[in-house]
Design brief:
32% of the residues lie in helices and 17% in strands. The strands form two sheets. Strands 4-1-5-10-9-6-7-8 form an eight-stranded parallel β-sheet, with helices on both faces. The chain has a two-stranded antiparallel sheet with strand order 2-3. The longest helix is centred in the last third of the chain and has 22 residues. With 291 residues, it is of the alpha/beta class. It binds manganese (II) ion (2 copies). The site of one manganese (II) ion (MN) has 6 residues, from loops. One manganese (II) ion (MN) binds next to loops.
């Protein structure tokens, strides 16, 4: 067995790798964060605080105990070396996908999603991406860096091409990014997420990857993040988004990024991430049963 379950797993996700259908791993990538760092601590804080949640979700009407999930823990990334880190995340994702399992990645900064999505795209060439975020993440480069959490989705676009990326809740970005969006490269809903319902209907049968930058939530709900943006969605709206995700027939992977637990000493932001992750694990298992 190549991957081992971590000693302290996310709540009820302590099955062995081989017997599990969904694999959780976390990427403590925290190098290009442009403002306040700390996402490298998210994975393990989420694991510790998951002790406090119920196994059962009344929203998904499903129980973590009913499914086999393996949490393989934090990847051992070389701190400060972006290129090597991206490569390691990519290789790990590929190996998990080769075993025909679904992945849930916990960030880390949002750049960690790039190698994960790349590996999924290589397996599913018709991949569609649902991206919830306060930020466009569509810069060509940022502070002279090609790979940054402010550029990663632009580089995903270079892989997947026009009209494959659906963004929701966006309320911050450079003028040039919004102009580029208006040229018709990605489909973007600014400020709100309500068109998600129609989008899920359109891409219902396609392979879909979901990436959730938790700063899509309002800072009143989720202050524990590096670049908070006022005017975000509520937690109930995020749960509504999961209801829409349930209508999809082929979700291939999911990630939750940009929690910086130390920025919210109350622990409330980590609780939001923990509950979102529970919904995510159950979503993927339920989705797998559809096929
Ligand atoms: Mn982002
Ligand atoms: Mn963001």
């Amino acid at each position: 067995m190549k991957f081992k379950k971590v000693d302290l797993s996310f709540q009820s996700c302590g099955s062995e790798f081989d017997e599990s259908e969904v694999i959780i791993f976390s990427c403590p990538l925290d190098t290009t964060t442009s403002f306040r760092p700390g996402t490298r601590f998210a994975g393990n804080q989420i694991r510790v605080d998951s002790i406090g949640i119920e196994w059962y979700s009344p929203h998904r009407q499903a129980n973590l105990k009913s499914f086999k999930t393996c949490d393989i823990g934090d990847l051992d990334l070389p701190v400060g070396d972006v290129e090597k880190s991206i490569n390691l995340i990519y290789e790990t994702t590929k190996e998990i996908l080769n075993e025909d399992k679904k992945t849930i990645m916990i960030g880390g900064e949002h750049l960690a999603s790039y190698p994960v999505i790349k590996a999924h795209f290589e397996k599913y060439p018709n991949l569609k991406i649902i991206h919830l975020d306060a930020h466009t993440d569509l810069r060509e480069e940022f502070l002279g860096m090609k790979f940054s959490h402010a550029t990663f989705m632009r580089h995903v676009h270079k892989l997947v091409g026009d009209n494959k990326i659906y963004q929701f809740g966006i309320r911050s970005g450079d003028e040039a990014e919004f102009k580029w969006v208006d040229e018709g490269h990605v489909i973007q809903q600014k400020f709100e997420i309500d068109t998600l319902k129609q989008v899920c209907d359109i891409i219902k049968e396609e392979p879909v990857y979901i990436t959730i930058d938790l700063d899509v939530l309002d800072p009143g709900v989720f202050p524990g993040t590096g670049t908070p943006e006022p005017g975000g969605i509520s937690y109930k709206e995020l749960l509504w988004a999961f209801d829409q995700f349930e209508t999809l027939n082929n979700i291939v992977g999911l990630d939750i990024v940009e929690l910086s637990p130390m920025l919210d000493p109350s622990g409330a932001s980590t609780a939001v991430a923990v509950k979102t992750l529970r919904e995510g694990v159950l979503l993927l298992h339920k989705n797998r049963l559809k096929r």
